[in-house]
Design a protein that fits this description.
Layout: H1 2-13, E1 27-31, E2 34-37, E3 42-45, H2 58-68, H3 80-91, E4 99-103, H4 106-121, E5 125-129, H5 138-141, E6 156-159, H6 174-195, E7 199-205, H7 220-230, E8 234-238, H8 252-256, E9 262-265, E10 276-280, H9 282-292, H10 302-317, H11 320-339, E11 345-351, E12 354-359, H12 370-382, E13 385-386, E14 388-390, E15 396-399, H13 407-425
Parallel strand pairs: 3-13, 5-6, 5-7, 7-8, 8-9
Antiparallel strand pairs: 1-2, 2-3, 4-10, 9-10, 11-12, 12-15, 14-15
Helix pairs in contact: 2-10, 3-10, 4-9, 6-7, 11-13
């Protein structure tokens, strides 16, 4: 049955549409932190951040169903729901965040953020890291692997992803290393100025998720934001992965110690309903709206509002922020304790319910072992736990479950992890 469905998929979608695992899973149902395949087998979802309050959350499902049965129109009519969602979302930030442009995906929201910065500064140049990902459109997709896999452009420049595990220079202390990375950021801004594009914005995932969730030099992002503003640019925090309590705090930028001018959120906002947002000061938002008259048929809709409000209700009612901090902290500590037991675990890092386990050939060389990371993900899948490999080098086992992930789930996962490690060490 799976083989037949795969053949039909390749015909219908075209071969090459990505799938996880050596043997693709046919998932038919979700509930909380669990996914179920066509044969009825249950898996613990350790990967998906979209259903942040759990798969098939009954509160979200009820709110969405009720709204769809009542009204769903575009944004050119007044509607209480979307205004209330915008007010509630901005209240979760500091005073610099006042207004919202809603859209349907992180790609759209990041594109709005960049256009907003360009209108505000009158410049076009954007700086990102060399292993980032901010979406799929021509504009933001052009940043993917910039500098590492494709050349810079006149309006896009890159700097090395800051990290302590594989630093640019092993001989420097943390303060000196921080300055080296900041110098690379300054140089990227200078290249944009020299190209004639000028410098409009620095955009980062607040916790450098796609870069591999690295530990960065203390104070790096605080200083980076200062440098960007001193150069006349704005700071965009891509919180699609980092936000909505993922780190145990509401926002990744809080965990990293900086204040953004523009905040982008996406996937988890709607728990499966397409919902994203670009939030900034009223002046920045209106400076974008005036020349563009931005309109998105499916954005700022009553349906989005119903889903978005229900997600916030569940997070607050069920204490999912503190759950992410507590359960994630304990799980990270438990994995960290296992680091000394296995020469192929180079590093364990992350915050809240977002943890990365760096897989290497051996600790001394720190040589990345992508094949083993893929093997671990497949072995864990066979034991009923869904992870994946990620990071700049593809060698980080990525652990990012829904926020309803419990201590009991963590205990079960650690048993599966230990069994997998035993197989690898045999």
């Amino acid at each position: 049955m799976t083989a037949d469905l795969l053949a039909r998929r390749n015909q219908a979608l075209g071969a090459g549409a990505a799938l996880f695992y050596e043997t693709p899973l046919h998932i038919v149902r979700g509930e909380g932190v669990y996914l179920f395949d066509a044969g009825g087998r249950r898996y613990v979802d350790m990967y998906n951040n979209v259903p942040c309050v759990g798969h098939a959350n009954p509160d979200v499902a009820e709110a969405v169903g009720r709204q769809q049965a009542t009204l769903n129109v575009h944004s050119r009519y007044l509607h209480e729901g979307i205004v209330s969602l915008a007010e509630r979302l901005t209240a979760l930030h500091g005073p610099q965040i006042e207004s919202v442009v809603f859209s349907c995906s992180g790609t759209e929201a990041n594109e709005v953020a960049i256009r907003m910065a360009r209108f505000a500064t009158g410049k076009r140049g954007v700086v990102c890291t060399d292993a980032t990902y901010h979406g799929n459109s021509e504009l933001v997709g052009g940043m993917t692997r910039l500098g590492a896999g494709q050349p810079e452009r006149a309006d896009l420049a890159t700097f090395p992803s800051p990290e302590l595990y594989r630093p640019l220079d092993d001989n420097l202390d943390e303060d000196a290393l921080c300055e080296v990375y900041l110098d690379r950021l300054r140089a990227a801004i200078a290249r944009l100025e020299a190209s004639g594009a000028g410098f409009a914005a620095l955009i980062v995932c607040s916790i450098f998720a796609n870069e591999g969730l690295p530990d960065v030099p203390v104070g790096f992002m605080t200083r980076a934001a200062e440098i960007a503003r001193a150069a006349g640019g704005l700071v965009i925090a891509d919180e699609v992965q980092a936000g909505y309590c993922r780190t145990g705090r509401w926002w990744g930028y809080e965990a990293m110690g900086f204040t953004p001018d523009i905040v982008v959120t996406g996937k988890p906002m709607g728990n499966g309903v397409p919902l994203a947002a670009t939030a900034a000061s009223r002046a920045l938002v209106e400076g974008f709206r005036a020349p563009t008259r931005y309109f998105n048929t499916f954005a700022s809709s009553p349906l989005q509002a119903a889903a978005g409000m229900a997600v916030l209700d569940v997070i607050e009612r069920d204490g999912l922020q503190s759950n992410a901090a507590r359960v994630g902290g304990d799980l990270k500590a438990a994995l960290k304790a296992r680091q000394s037991q296995h020469d192929w675990i180079g590093d364990v890092r992350g915050q809240g319910l977002f943890i990365g386990v760096e897989i290497v050939r051996d600790k001394d060389s720190r040589t990345p072992d992508r094949d083993r990371a893929v093997d671990i993900a497949n072995r864990l899948m066979r034991r009923g736990f869904l992870t994946s490999n990620a990071g700049m080098l593809g060698n980080v086992v990525k652990i990012r479950p829904p926020l309803v992930f419990s201590q009991a789930n963590a205990v079960d996962f650690l048993e599966a992890f230990d069994a997998t490690a035993g197989e690898l060490n045999a």
